[in-house]
Inverse folding.
């Protein structure tokens, strides 16, 4: 089973069905926190729903179309990070992430995202990575800003979020702009 140490506190683990209960419990405990910006939360009604999501992510991984990892902080599940879909023709992808409230401010997402970016450029040979966030989701927007992404503008009414459309702030990073750390994920 794939796992990667980002730091002494932070570890990435490829999502596996065996983690479904643990991931569901954290999702359920953080339901109000996550629901503010993530429309899928209402669809996660049981560990079985989470297991089905994990299985779809594993199919994506086996089709060489990206992967999704659990982020662990001191061996406790803290959230997820992954590549949405890989656009091989255009050599680009986008990164999505979510984090349980109790792990905010510890550098978990920024550190994990840094490793995912390095992997996308060095191992996949991609040229562009996007991160999109709700225009007023300042915590999510802070991640690409810390990592040197360029704010490229907003997409109006990009996503239906429960009862309204929200705009997305779009950030882009090119391979030529990235200065990787000395190590990277190996799958």
């Amino acid at each position: 089973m794939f796992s990667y140490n980002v730091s002494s506190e932070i570890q990435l683990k490829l999502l596996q069905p065996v983690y479904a209960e643990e991931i569901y419990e954290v999702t359920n405990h953080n339901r109000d926190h996550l629901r503010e910006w993530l429309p899928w939360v209402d669809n996660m009604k049981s560990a079985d729903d989470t297991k089905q999501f994990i299985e779809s992510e594993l199919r994506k991984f086996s089709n060489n179309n990206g992967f999704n990892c659990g982020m662990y902080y001191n061996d406790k599940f803290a959230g997820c990070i992954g590549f949405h879909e890989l656009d091989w023709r255009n050599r680009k992808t986008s990164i999505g992430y979510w984090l349980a409230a109790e792990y905010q401010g510890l550098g978990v997402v920024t550190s994990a995202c840094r490793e995912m970016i390095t992997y996308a450029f060095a191992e996949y040979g991609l040229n562009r990575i996007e991160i999109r966030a709700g225009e007023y989701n300042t915590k999510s927007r802070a991640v690409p800003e810390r990592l040197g992404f360029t704010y490229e503008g907003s997409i109006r009414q990009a996503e239906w979020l429960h009862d309204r459309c929200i705009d997305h702030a779009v950030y882009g990073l090119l391979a030529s702009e990235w200065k990787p750390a000395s190590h990277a994920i190996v799958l």
